[in-house]
Design a protein that fits this description.
This protein is α/β, with parallel strands linked by helices and 346 residues long. The chain folds into 2 domains: 2-145 and 274-342, 3-Layer(bba) Sandwich (FAD/NAD(P)-binding domain), CATH 3.50.50; 148-270, FAD/NAD(P)-binding domain (3-Layer(bba) Sandwich). 22% of the residues lie in helices and 25% in strands. The protein contains 7 helices and 19 strands. Strands 1, 2, 5, 6, 7, 8 and 19 form a 7-stranded mixed β-sheet that branches. β12 (204-208), α6 and β13 form a beta-alpha-beta unit. α5 packs parallel to α6 (218-226). It is elongated and about 65 Å long. Bound molecules: NADP nicotinamide-adenine-dinucleotide phosphate. NADP nicotinamide-adenine-dinucleotide phosphate binds at residues 149, 185-191, 193, 210-211, 215, 237, 271-273, 317.
């Protein structure tokens, strides 16, 4: 199936802070962006249009919201602001849905992008129903998903604000974690960083690691070991998360002996890596060894393919914040606009 032969000025794939900010800037530059906002998925954990903030209860570090804002509300504002201008979204019910009550749920579904062909211009973007769209430029803002252990109770408590999270910077300062014993799962740099950050609020932080040695860089590992508020549970995996409305602890399994034990905790933070949503770009764009999109210039949003721009967590394994993703979305739209002008597309 093919669309009506029209070539879009810019197609944006992704609907987190980077995608909606790119749409906002592109729409205000009269590029009439077309957005693939993505369909909710539940495998392996829930992924919603709007990205990782849809899994976050209270956001206290997005500037401009002195009282804080919930993740879904914030993403609804992003979406509504992009739609106030000439942004279109690919949905079951046409291309310009009413999103005024986006945070209360939609009566239609957003479509996924199934495949792209970036080998020739105009670029080809294929929707989930095999409709083909063509575009002079493409902004990829598909984000990354935090890795989770995959336990039922972990997911339930993460989604209900029950003290399980995959982002200490996002959630660690919430009152519910104050003066509690908190667990951090993982042994990499992120785990150390999250554990160190959490010591500002917690009475104690226990790093739960499946081996007896941290993966983190030496300097980071030493920082964790030197911190009197950080303890280690070596050779342990979390086999269950305990608690009804709020986490009360975890069941641990010793990776050497198989022995099970229980640890009381007032909060649990996963730091077992992220996976960028770039699978559909294999062979189309240069990715790094961890599958993040490689930027052609670290200060820009340009990629290995001219006319294709990257923004947000799918290019960023370091900062991974909503505000940095939004800033990158802005850069990508400006880069796309300038590139299109150079190509004579206005
Ligand atoms: P990472 O280096 O891949 O570490 C992931 C950790 O999670 C590892 O310790 C791993 O255990 C553990 N893990 C993975 N799957 C697990 C599972 N199913 N159950 C239990 N444990 C599991 O990821 P990261 O820490 O997010 O770092 C990603 C990249 O960003 C790295 O290159 C890192 O250096 C960089 N980074 C740098 C900084 C900094 O310099 N300030 C901060 C954050 C991240 P094993 O060790 O046994 O594999």
């Amino acid at each position: 199936m093919s669309s009506n032969g029209k070539v879009e000025k810019v197609i944006i794939i992704g609907s987190g802070p980077a995608g909606w900010t790119a749409a906002l800037y592109a729409a205000r530059a009269n590029l009439s962006p077309l957005v693939f906002a993505g369909r909710p998925k539940t495998v392996p954990t829930t992924i919603l249009p709007g990205g990782q903030l849809m899994m976050t209860t209270e956001v206290e570090n997005y500037p401009g919201f002195p009282e804080g804002v919930t993740g879904p509300k914030l993403m609804s504002y992003f979406e509504q602001q992009a739609m106030r201008f000439d942004t279109r979204i690919v949905t079951d019910k046409g291309m310009t849905p009413d999103v005024s009550n986006a945070d209360d749920g939609h009566s239609y579904s957003y479509h996924d992008c199934k495949r792209v062909d970036l080998s020739k211009r105009p670029f080809l973007v294929v929707g989930e129903d095999d409709t083909e769209y063509h575009a002079h430029s493409v902004i990829i803002a598909t984000g990354a998903t935090a890795n989770w252990l995959g336990l039922d109770n972990e997911k339930r408590l993460a989604m209900s604000g029950g003290g399980v999270s995959a982002c200490a910077v996002c959630d660690g300062a919430l009152p519910v974690f104050r003066d509690k014993v908190l667990g951090v799962v993982g042994g990499g740099d992120s785990a150390v960083e999250e554990a160190s950050y959490l010591t500002k609020f917690a009475s104690k932080v226990v790093m739960i690691h499946r081996r007896d040695q941290l993966r983190a860089s030496k300097i980071m590992a030493q920082r964790a070991k030197d911190n009197p508020k950080i303890e280690f549970a070596w050779n342990k995996t979390v086999s269950d998360v305990l608690g009804d409305d709020m986490i009360t602890g975890v069941t641990l399994k010793d990776t050497k002996t198989g022995e099970q034990s229980t640890m009381e905790l007032g909060g649990l933070f996963m730091a077992i890596g992220h996976t960028p949503a770039t699978e559909f770009l294999e062979g189309q764009l240069q990715l790094d060894e961890k599958k993040y999109i490689k930027l052609a210039d670290p200060y820009r949003s340009t990629t290995s393919v001219e006319g294709v721009f990257g923004a947000g967590d799918c290019v960023d394994s370091v900062y991974r914040q909503a505000v940095t993703a939004a800033g990158m979305g802005c850069k990508a739209a400006i880069d796309a606009e300038r590139w299109l002008a150079d190509q004579g597309v206005e």
